[in-house]
Amino acid sequence: MPVSTRSIRERSAVGRFPTVTFGFGEDTEEEKEASEEDNAEQGNACQTWLRKICPCCCPQRNDVDITDTLITVTDYPSEVTDDKKPVAGDSELDELLLNVKSIDLMKGKSGENRTQHHTDLYQSDAFIIRRGQNFHMWITLSRPFDPSTDKLHLDLKTGPLPTVSKGTHVIIPLVEKLEGNRWEASIVSQDDKRMKLSVNSLPTALIGRYQIIVETHCANGQAVSTHDPANDIIMLFNPWCEDDTVFMDAEDERQEYVLNDIGKIYYGTMDQIGVRTWDYGQFQDGILAACIFVLEKSGTPPSGWGDPINVVRVVSAMINSPDDLGVVEGDWSGNYSAGTSPTVWSGSVEILNEYHKNNGNPVKYGQCWVFAGVFTTVLRCLGIPGRTVTNFSSAHDTDVSLTTDVYLDENLDPIELLNADSIWNFHVWNDAWMARPDLPAGNGGWQAVDATPQETSQGTFRCGPAALTAVRNGQVFLKHDVPFVFAEVNSDKIYWQKNTDGTFSQIYSEKKVVGHFISTKAVGTDERMDITHFYKHPEGTEMERIAVETACSYGSKAEAYTYTKSQDVSIEVTMDGEGPKMGEDAELKIILRNSSSEERKLTLHSQVAVMYYTGVHKATVKKDMTDLDLMPNEEKPLEWTMEYKDYKDQLVDQAALMLTLTGRVKETQQVMATQFNFRLRTPDLILKPIGKAVVGEKMAVEISFTNPLTQVLKAVIFHVEGLGLLTARKIHYGDIGSRASVSLTEHFVPTLPGPRKLLASLDCKQLTQVHGVTGITVEEKNNGA
């Protein structure tokens, strides 16, 4: 390996005194010019001395050009002629120093370092290790190492301005015995000029890319190895290390939340939960480099990259694009002609690779599940346990009231201009696992983080980490962004009616409409796991009410909890089975209950609107008003129907609709109100593998689909991908006729063995959220056949 030394200026900068070297330090241009003027006649004193001792290696200036490259030692040539100048590496003096010839980090995927550090799944030839854990390396020297006279240490540097005090410049000493919990190295074995080192890293070490060099000292001087980018070290968080703040003690959970590269994302409504498979692909070629690029692109100092709290805040901001040109550009307009429709994506690999390839140009387009899917990939890739979480009936509080407010006019019709708060049919975010030493004890564990750009946190579109314990107990005064997450899962819905003088009065409240069936993929299976209890106490219990009132006492509308009014008439909306299908009439059931011993008369207003899944109103498609009589203790069911022709021209992404019911009881002036979200179910794509699945051998998949609509689907695009099966590809199919059935065959060559998932989706302007998945077990190729 080529050898060079630091200049005197560089060595002093890291707190070490310069040693005498046979060469010149790198100086500024001004210093060089002054030196040349001062020594025009007699030359540098050291050079003059060396010339007297050994004229062959340090000839007069007119014999040999003096360059500005600093070399620890100028090697002696075997013989010097007038037309051949001394070249570094050819000198006999080289034997006097302890030079580093090569560094072997033992970075093979199946080697002991990668397997013991649980990084052998990364499809990368880089040296990838986890902090707080020992690793081994070989160093080949120019002669055998003599501990009695020789010294050696490792230099690790990360970031643009490496500094010892900030942890971005690490000096690893060679010690006789490893003590742990510090940066240190010791000799494990020695074979002539080769020596094997065992190296310890701190469990608080910064993550990211480090440059490594080896510096040696002996009686004859100092030598420093040249930086080789191929030997750069990628340091990750370590959930297997008890002293790392991301430590997770259950192996099955580490397998799921760190090492599993495929998952499930839930969507729909609380009554119609849908699921789609997502390729996280954190180990795929290029993804680790893309994740490091995301950190570097953030412009945040690497000195903060040792703290997972800080890292997830950085990543939360960098996954979206409004502030910092992050990975994904969000779009909820319904017009995605300038990019890819959010419903088409089936994984993170294509997105992250495109972002990296285009040098940080945001990828178009994403919505909440895309942001969350990419976030999970980055978390797991960097070593932070993470999972994708879906909250059904998820509130978006825009005024820090910690309530979801609905404003009605004098006739009890919604005032759309004022209804800034919304309840999303579903919202997808992430949980990240870490200790929280910055919070009171008991707040470590799962933390909610969110990359979807909804509201700003300290001036930037990001959210979290919010401790789930704090969310559950209404401790909204704890950081970060606990109030916003609390409102998403446990805010009350307050209805306000406009008075004749323009003010508003609270007329009704609903306490159980927000935060249902909070879901994530179960550990070790493809089943849905309900984690609502992590976020909130059971609805209606004393602990849940205390949490809500504690949280709202810090909100902007604390007076809402002084409202009390007797209520003896209730209203509920139900749906049979999995609900209405796309292209068919939608049928629901409205149930009215009179719990009093007297007759009640009421006027019921109904309004159904097409909604974006975020709860934003698009268009009202049907309105009704009905007068009803309820006998004492009567329960009255009402059938409600909306015909296909009423909604077919108004649907947007997710085919979401919302039925709003309001009413007033004449005898008591009680106001009833509720909102019921539902979606029109879309058909699945049917995937059928064709042929035997063997690594390196061609096979195919047949994709089948039936158009459920009476209208033609225009410019249909199929999107297919599968980790270890085929990279993401788009198939421009064309039009599909009314109620028509189609099939197509796609060929591919599997690249990795084992159980795999092949994913497909369909996209067109008339129909979205159509997808399918099939499992394929790929066999190893039999080379002996």
From TrEMBL:
GO CC annotations on file: membrane
Molecular function as annotated in GO: metal ion binding; protein-glutamine gamma-glutamyltransferase activity
Catalytic activity entry: L-glutaminyl-[protein] + L-lysyl-[protein] = [protein]-L-lysyl-N(6)-5-L-glutamyl-[protein] + NH4(+)
Cofactor note: Binds 1 Ca(2+) ion per subunit.
Domain (Transglutaminase-like): residue spans on this chain: 360-453
Entry keyword annotation includes Lipoprotein: yes
Record's keyword terms, sorted: Acyltransferase, Calcium, Keratinization, Lipoprotein, Membrane, Metal-binding, Palmitate, Phosphoprotein, Transferase
UniProt subunit comment: Interacts with PLAAT4.
Name of the protein described by the UniProt record: Protein-glutamine gamma-glutamyltransferase K
Upper taxonomic lineage: Eukaryota, Metazoa, Chordata, Craniata, Vertebrata
